[in-house]
Amino acid sequence: MVARIARKEEYAGACRIYLYNEVIVIARERKFTTDDLFRETGHVLLAQGYEGFTFSILAERLQVSRGALYKYYDNKDELISDFMIHEMDRFLAELREIDNCPDFESRFRYLLDLIFKRRTIHQLISSVQQIPRSGNAKVKANLARLDQLHLDMYARLGSFVGQGRREGKLRSHLPDGLVLGFIFQSIMIPNHSGIPYEEWVAAIEDIIRHGIMA
Amino acid sequence: MVARIARKEEYAGACRIYLYNEVIVIARERKFTTDDLFRETGHVLLAQGYEGFTFSILAERLQVSRGALYKYYDNKDELISDFMIHEMDRFLAELREIDNCPDFESRFRYLLDLIFKRRTIHQLISSVQQIPRSGNAKVKANLARLDQLHLDMYARLGSFVGQGRREGKLRSHLPDGLVLGFIFQSIMIPNHSGIPYEEWVAAIEDIIRHGIMA
DNA sequence: GATTAAAGTGACAAATGTGTCACTTTGGGT
DNA sequence: ACCCAAAGTGACACATTTGTCACTTTAATC
């Protein structure tokens, strides 16, 4: 009698498998969760960049054999694009919450906090842009979805700037893209001199608001 | 009789070789100059990043065989670190000219222009930082020299900020590193909306001076 | 035309990354 | 104790990159 899987649910470190006869079978415990996988994927991607990202490095960090990873992803492009969709989803979910803020001023602070918390997303995006568009179907679909998520992000940020203009808070002659670019880029300034975090963030907010000149 | 080279002078596409008896011999013309080599090194490094940089790609772009490149550099780390010293030297030579500007205001405009002209240098630096410090002696020496050049750069930029403070032009509570970081990072903002160059630069200068808020 | 020495080539071996797969391990239920 | 199926392993074949080197080409002088 051949078993057919009806449903498969992953949880911390293991898998519930529901067979055709509704009997629960718990298979061998996994050595790493999808969370582990994505977390390490992010670390390796940030440290090594797209070209330097290999399944060997990832497998070593997860303490599994390279072959085990191929059980989940056929190649690094599929993994990285899947990972990036996951990251963008998380980011967008939090970005949507900006609508709960009543006015532009509180939205500005919320956005700044959010970008600080997710400050690696910029660098990750530039890694993803190195994935060849000519890849396989799964990768193509993922990249298309990412383009969609990007557009969604820009639309939301655009409406944030729009509100700022309507409330007369923003200097009106500055292009939208530049205002947003400034906020995004500022977060990436390396704190070489080791100024305490709170102080550093406050100074960045100040400089975005009013510039460097007296 | 064994020939010994006393001096060797490279010029556009060829090489003058001065032999022990002072007789000039012009060897086979080179297919690429050091300028060509560095220019393409820069392009490939920007397009592919450190890990994606290979002698194969470089050789193809220079229309020579891969073997030819090994006549000049033993491996990519030596080439890239040499190239980066060359870039930093050029940048610093121009940065030193800032002393010819009389006041802070003119220095500010000069620095902005310079960073715009050399806006790739930031990304190149991050590629160079991926070179393993454990490499061979030549690479180690080059990286040490680069650290030196970095310090020189920061010192000069620091004195620029210092003058701004003395002249009372800069908002006094902002940390030096943040002011400089802000100027550097601004240049990297991608102009997605395709705003004309002059307009874009003017808007960036404006936002650096006075921020985004009305 | 012979000689010279640098410039360049292409074939080779070594190292590393990629993808596959038969096999073993595991943790249940029967 | 036996079966099942997913999880994991390690060896294999293949591709790409790296570094070397004997050889050819070139542009001059003798």
UniProtKB/TrEMBL annotation, chains A, B:
InterPro entries: Homeodomain-like_sf, HTH-type_TetR-like_transc_reg, HTH_TetR
HTH tetR-type domain residues: 31-91
Keywords: DNA-binding, Repressor, Transcription, Transcription regulation
Annotation: DNA-binding region: 54-73
Domain of life of the source: Bacteria
Coiled coil: none
Keyword DNA-binding: yes
GO molecular function, one term: DNA-binding transcription factor activity
PROSITE patterns, per the entry: HTH_TETR_2
Name assigned to this protein: Transcriptional regulator
Organism: Thermobacillus composti (strain DSM 18247 / JCM 13945 / KWC4)
Lineage: Bacteria, Bacillati, Bacillota, Bacilli, Bacillales
